[in-house]
Design goal:
heterotrimer, A mainly alpha (274), B mainly alpha (317), C alpha/beta (459), A: 274 residues, mainly alpha, MetI-like fold, 2 domains, B: 317 residues, two-stranded antiparallel ribbon, 14 helices
């Protein structure tokens, strides 16, 4: 009995310590966002605001179009996510159910593209997008990311786990591939689509280098760029910067709450059980 | 963390490359072929324009010098590559990138493993802890970096205050070249912990409960169960996690751009940041492309090594 | 912010008449008032011409920029200026490079002084001189110290907008406590060191200078030392960096020694970090731009009194030699925009150089007025009374002897050279290299990059 209690105690101690370490930066952001400017830059640093000062949120919204940034990020990640779902499930269906010459080779090629880190292609892609006049546009932000090898792979895994009998029955009933794809395979692979969707949304929500390179107007900036611009200022007011961060964190936290469960199981089953 | 997609056990997927559906021969042959083209066209087109073409263009750019406007000036052969390897600058970048990987990847995976292992047990309140540990997932690189910038402030920052309150000397987190990379690593580990925690927890929950039950019956303690049972069973997940984190570390850019700009003394000048500076600050697309190609080869080698050595030890269900 | 509410249009009529009135008042150059009116006639049919202005003014400075733009937009209806903040100077220039040739760039761009050579070599700009000549604009009203920086081959390529120089900020209360005379700030390297020693106590450090290449450049110009060959790159393209001169080694050795002795802190490159520490009373001296004056004074309010002094010289022997380089930024007009748009930008630039605009700008930011007449404006006179600290900066500017050293170095790779300088400063201060070694290495690298650059534009 003894070692058990000790062990439980130790476990809780570790959990608590880890929780404090992980939460502390969040707390710093939240408490600073409620402070006045002089409170936020004193020594010793204050851990609690003396009053609930909500003005910071108003003034940060007045000084930068933060809502616009959030909308931009939503639109960008949204378009990419939908695009990924469409291209990936189409390609995956072809690889899973269609027979055509060179299929193995092509699939290997698809998989090989996962080895090309995106940064390697950033210079030519930037030149391409610039020459098309796509700087400062949603097209420039999204189109280069619409296809995904990882997504194709993930969806193919899901398709291949579908019961074979079902597919065969559909074939015998005279269904064409397009119908099978649209009304059987895709609906049945919904869990896979959801996983891919959450994954792709989160990933592209966090894009930094690409939007930094191709957005120039304030109206096209995504959250990531908008927020980082806040701190490049002369005499940064920390309380305002933190208020901006808290505002940006709200949608992220909401997305996390909604998408969390999906991501936990889906990624492991999809990606790892071959 | 820009793109985790580059990391997936390829082979495991390939093992199943056989048609799942049996169908009448020949009759639908051409029809199917046309369909396949249609289904694959969007992806192939996009990959062609934004992946394969750029790769070729990179090779072209890497053997040229460029004007201040970024246009190709003249053919200079392999001089860009020679310069890269001659200057200590690029080699330093390579080393920094390697160190950064070494600091972040094992630490964050071990931490995430421990936390996930404790959270998998049926202690009271683990639900709350699960939520807390997954919170960093909501943090993006820019928000995370800005928060830590405040924590790291050399004289007003909370971290130094706490150190001094504990009677320790203050640390110049981002301005001491001996510390800067460690500081960036701490921030990165914190930021990535959420994703790894969820990934590993998911892997552990995928292990059927009765396996644990029977281990318990056999009188195995939690430590032994973890080492002898859980670890091997979730090894594919750990493998996946390590590949993604490694590539994530290789691609780190945002936190360096915001916190240190590669300094002090280039102590945090990782490859991708160096590439960015060369190409988009100093407008030398040629040598930037040369760096990109070196980066490509390195990641390729790294991935191949991982699959060669990693896959053997990984236990697939 | 982008869309002008319709009710503003009524006001713009009023504003227009006000503008004409002001233009008439500024006198001396009849062309200034008549030329825009003529332009207005030809473009009235197509609505206002839109001018996109990229700038690097954030925080309080950014707010002032926005209000200037608003004043201008409300004052007439031919031109609508849209100001877009593009991050600090480095970032802004990167953005500009990235947008070059894409058509998504600005009509008008604010770039820091060290970006000048690059801007010229980029061949993306219309020299300001063309507008000046066509418009017979009188430049003699502008400060020649400031103009001299931006004049290349006897042509003014860009219009100076915000100029500043570095000054020494010190905490008067801390000086008193340490037994130093708060009205007699240190002027030589030795004095600064002595003061720093006396000020270091009770958890307070004597001071901290941010690792900022600009400060190094200024300290050298202040000894009348050139940074590049070929008269600082002004008589011909520079081919060699002289960053490793004795004066530079001396200066860096002095700086490093104070850090080694523990009487100065090294708080890194971010000037904001140093300013915050100064405002919090943790360090007693710092060097920073005059543009930070308001911010520093107001954040120290209620805590201590801020004093300012010229930046130090190595010894009293240097009295009367050299001076500060005009720092800050200027405005460039891009040549890939339609003529009408460029003319509209020029019109806005003229508005910005008016004495009253300059007075408003100076009072709200701490940047110098670029027009001598601005000092006659009441706004400035009052402000000088309120912030007597600003006198230091004006004296320092006017005390500067103009020669290639104080006109400032010119090179296309200046931003990169500055970074290399900063790395060298870090190496010396952190002790990984001796100051001489660090500067030798940096100079060699800069020389190499200069040659590569010269090769690439020779095509």
């Amino acid at each position: 009995m003894r070692p058990n209690i000790m062990r439980t105690g130790l476990a809780y101690l570790m959990l608590a310590a880890a929780a404090i370490l992980i939460l502390f930066p969040f707390w710093t952001a939240l408490s600073n966002s409620l402070m006045t400017e002089s409170e936020s830059a004193t020594y010793p640093p204050k851990f609690f605001p003396t009053s609930l000062n909500l003005d910071n949120f108003a003034s940060v919204m007045a000084s930068i179009p933060i809502i616009r940034f959030i909308v931009n990020s939503f639109v960008t990640s949204g378009i990419i996510t939908i695009g990924n779902l469409i291209t990936a499930s189409m390609a995956a269906y072809a690889f899973a159910f269609l027979r055509f010459p060179g299929r193995k080779l092509l699939f290997a090629l698809f998989m090989a593209t996962m080895m090309i880190p995106w940064e390697v292609t950033v210079i030519p892609n930037y030149l391409t997008v610039r020459s098309w006049g796509w700087l400062d546009s949603y097209a420039g932000l999204t189109v280069p990311f619409l296809a995904t090898a990882f997504g194709t792979f993930l969806m193919r895994q899901f398709f291949m786990q579908l019961p074979k009998e079902l597919m065969e029955a559909a074939r015998i009933d005279g269904c064409g591939h397009i119908r099978i794809f649209a009304s059987l395979a895709v609906p049945l692979a919904m869990p896979g689509l959801a996983t891919l969707g959450v994954y792709s949304f989160l990933n592209h929500w966090n894009m930094y280098l690409w939007p930094l390179l191709i957005t120039n107007t304030e109206n096209m900036r995504t959250v990531q760029i908008g927020i980082s611009m806040l701190q490049f200022a002369e005499m940064t007011a920390w309380n305002l910067v933190m208020a901006g961060i808290v505002l940006v964190l709200v949608p992220s936290l909401l997305m996390l709450a909604i998408g969390l469960g999906r991501l936990v199981g889906g990624l492991t089953t999809g990606a790892l059980k071959g | 963390m820009l793109d985790k997609s580059s990391a997936v056990p390829v082979k495991s997927g390939m093992q199943r490359t056989r048609s799942a559906v049996r169908q009448p021969r020949r009759t639908r042959h051409w029809h199917e072929y046309a369909l396949a083209v249609m289904f694959l066209a969007p992806s192939i087109l996009l990959f062609g324009i934004f992946l394969f073409y750029p790769l070729i263009k990179s090779v072209y750019l890497s053997v040229h010098s460029t004007t201040p406007r970024g246009d190709v000036a003249k053919f200079i052969g392999l001089r860009n590559f020679e310069k890269l390897f001659d200057s200590g600058h690029f080699l330093n970048s390579l080393w920094v990138t390697f160190e950064f990987m070494l600091f972040t990847v094992p630490t964050s995976i071990v931490l995430a493993l421990i936390l996930a292992a404790i959270c998998r047990t049926h202690l009271r309140g683990t639900k709350v802890f699960r939520f807390i540990f997954s919170l960093p997932l909501a943090i993006s690189v820019s928000t995370g970096s800005v928060i830590w910038m405040v924590l790291f402030h050399p004289t007003l920052g909370t971290l130094n205050y706490l150190l001094q309150a504990a009677g320790l000397p203050a640390v110049q987190w981002l301005t001491d070249p001996n510390w800067s990379l460690i500081s960036i690593s701490i921030m990165t580990i914190w930021m990535n912990l959420g994703f790894l925690f969820i990934l590993l927890l998911g892997g552990m929950e995928g292990v059927p409960e009765d396996i644990y039950e029977s281990a318990k019956m056999d009188g195995a303690g939690p430590m032994r169960t973890f080492v002898q049972l859980t670890l091997p069973l979730i090894s594919p997940t750990i493998f996946f996690a390590s590949v993604t984190s490694m590539i994530g570390a290789f691609q780190s850019f945002g936190q360096i751009h915001i916190l240190t700009k590669g300094g002090p003394m280039n102590s945090t000048n990782v490859l991708v940041y160096n590439l960015y500076q060369d190409a988009f600050v100093n407008f030398r697309f040629g040598s930037g492309s040369a760096q990109a190609l070196v980066l490509f080869v390195l990641i390729l080698i790294l991935t191949i090594i991982q699959f060669k050595f990693g896959e053997k030890k990984v236990h697939y269900q | 912010m982008k869309f002008k509410p319709f009710w503003l249009r009524k006001w713009s009529l009023l504003g227009m008449s006000l503008f004409l009135f002001l233009a008439a008042c500024s006198g001396g150059q009849p062309s200034q008032g008549s030329e825009p009116a003529a332009a207005a006639g030809s473009e009235a049919s197509s609505g206002p011409v839109k001018v996109v202005w990229w700038h690097s003014m954030s925080g309080e400075l950014g707010k002032t920029v926005d209000s200037l733009v608003k004043q201008f937009n409300d004052s007439q209806k031919d031109v609508q200026v849209e100001a877009v903040y593009q991050g600090e100077y480095d970032e802004g220039l990167n953005k500009f490079k990235a947008a070059m040739g894409s058509g998504s760039g600005p009509t008008m761009m604010q770039t820091y002084e060290v970006g000048s050579r690059f801007m010229i070599d980029s061949q993306a700009v219309t020299p300001m001189q063309q507008f000046i000549d066509a418009d017979k604009f009188d430049v003699s009203q502008l400060e020649e110290n400031i103009l001299s920086y931006y004049t290349f081959d006897n042509k003014l390529y860009s219009m100076p907008f915000n100029t500043s120089n570095p000054i020494l900020y010190y905490n008067k209360d801390a000086f008193k406590k340490a037994g130093l005379d708060p009205e007699n700030p240190p002027t030589t390297y030795a004095d600064v060191e002595k003061a720093a020693k006396a000020l270091t106590k009770d958890g307070q450090s004597g001071g901290s200078f941010p690792i900022y290449g600009w400060l190094m450049e200024q300290l050298l110009a202040n000894q009348d030392v050139e940074l590049l060959n070929n008269s600082n790159g002004r008589s011909a393209l520079a081919t060699e960096s002289m960053l490793n001169s004795d004066a530079a080694v001396n200066t860096l050795t002095w700086w490093k020694k104070m850090v080694d002795d523990g009487v100065m802190l090294n708080l890194g490159r971010k000037t904001d970090d140093t300013k915050k520490a100064f405002a919090a009373g943790q360090i007693a001296m710092t060097m920073d731009s005059t543009a930070s004056l308001r911010g520093i004074v107001s954040s120290a309010e209620g805590k201590f009194e801020v004093g300012t002094a010229p930046i130090p010289k190595p010894s009293a022997d240097y009295e009367g030699k050299g001076g500060v380089i005009v720092g800050g930024a200027s405005l460039w007009i891009m040549n890939d925009k339609p003529e009408a748009e460029q003319q509209a930008a020029w019109k806005f630039i003229k508005f910005l150089t008016e004495p009253s605009t300059q007075a408003y700008w100076n009072v709200n930011t701490g940047y110098f007025p670029i027009t001598k007449k601005a000092y006659d404006e009441d706004l400035i006179k009052e402000n000088m009374k309120k912030y007597p600290q600003f006198e230091t900066a004006v004296k320092q500017l006017h005390g500067t002897k103009i020669d290639p050293a104080t006109q400032g170095a010119v090179m296309g790779i200046f931003p990169e050279a500055r970074q290399l300088t900063e790395t060298a400063m870090e190496e010396a201060i952190n002790g990984s290299k001796s100051p001489k070694q660090a500067l030798d290495d940096a100079a060699a690298q800069i020389t190499q990059k200069l040659q590569d650059y010269n090769d690439s534009i020779a095509q």
